[in-house]
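lol so apparently i was supposed to do this last week
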Amino acid sequence: MTRYLVRPGSRLAGRFPVPGDKSISHRAVILGALAEGVTEVEGLLEGADVLATIAAFRSMGVQMEGPDKGHLRIYGAGLQGLRAPVVPLDCGNSGTAMRLLAGVLAGQPFPSTLVGDASLQKRPMGRILNPLRAMGAEIAAQDGRAPLHIHGRPLHGIDYALPVASAQVKSAVLLAGLYADGQTCVTEPAPTRDHSERMLQGFGHPVERHGPRACLRGGGRLCGQALQVPGDISSAAFFLLGATIAPGSDLTLEGVGINPTRTGIIEILTRMGARIDLTALREVGGEPVADIRVRYAPLQGIAIPRRLVPLAIDEFPALFIAAACAKGQTVIAGAEELRVKESDRIAVMAGGLRALGATVEERVDGAIISGSALLGGRVDSHGDHRIAMAFAMAALVAQGDMEILDCANVATSFPSFPVLAQQAGLLLEVASA
Ligand code: S3P
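anyway here it is w/ shikimate-3-phosphate bound
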């Protein structure tokens, strides 16, 4: 088992880019595979989650070269060019891979099976099964969980109001909509990441957007593209946390995506008192990007506005740590989605923080965290990449050494985390066994 051993007392400094955005990388592979012509991706995240999506399309006959140093060349098969896979498609730990692939596969003229690891096979798939079935899909699951057995069928467009704010569900329905008769529309209850809508447009497929509603028509064609993937703000988040809480820190993260549907972490940390400056604002691959400078600042507890929850949905492990390091109480509410991520992030973060001596009141939809000194000790990440990285940063200000268990899945989203964190000054050692 991979463990992190982290000594306290250092600070973070330097200037470096973070790896490519995971959500955008998945979508680049998917749309590149379904496009006509060649798609050249630069800055692709070579994490296990994205590699699973690449492997799935290779199993369906799509030719690709790479990935190598973030470069992937995809020879698009066209919307109708996928071949029946002869093996189950293994999505590993990745909810995005499974849910978006299910959208693509629902309308194919062949059967397919999607499987995942133990964590993924526990996660709710009913949220995609319902709209896809309403479009005419035939998908068998066990109690709304993977494995998903998909019998590809002709689909028809729907007008779907998402019951939960989920970019994965929105994207699954829109991707299925490419294969459906007529128009497919999704309306979301709160804004979620819009990378699918942006990238579909970039590949030449019109998406009409009116406030919370996005619509597209089935058919047509996607055109192969040259595409640069911006740095992942969800990976940058751990460094924003670490530099904010460790006195004397001053760090600049280069080329980070600042799509407004992803910047909840910056707004929340800033409200808590963080010192974060955005410079060199520019556009990369149809997405806004900036360099982000973050310096140490004392934090104050706040009630996190509910509207910011979907805009920071992957950043709550980091925010739990920020809250524990802040003066006073931080209230997290309206965040029940955290219970169905790679782990139950409310329970696992509360458990980990309590193991370090913090006071956390767990709620069904969040937690109330009282700021206090953190002791050292042992924390179990429960195989959740973001929880492992968040606690690694907490060690900066702990009173003793920390040991974080079950860290191998950091490789799903941020394989270079230990090395970058060490270079920035974190006293981290990776131990296996
Ligand atoms: C993602 C959407 C979010 C997020 C996940 C990636 C995506 O999930 O938590 O890490 O790429 O669309 P939900 O759509 O389930 O909120």
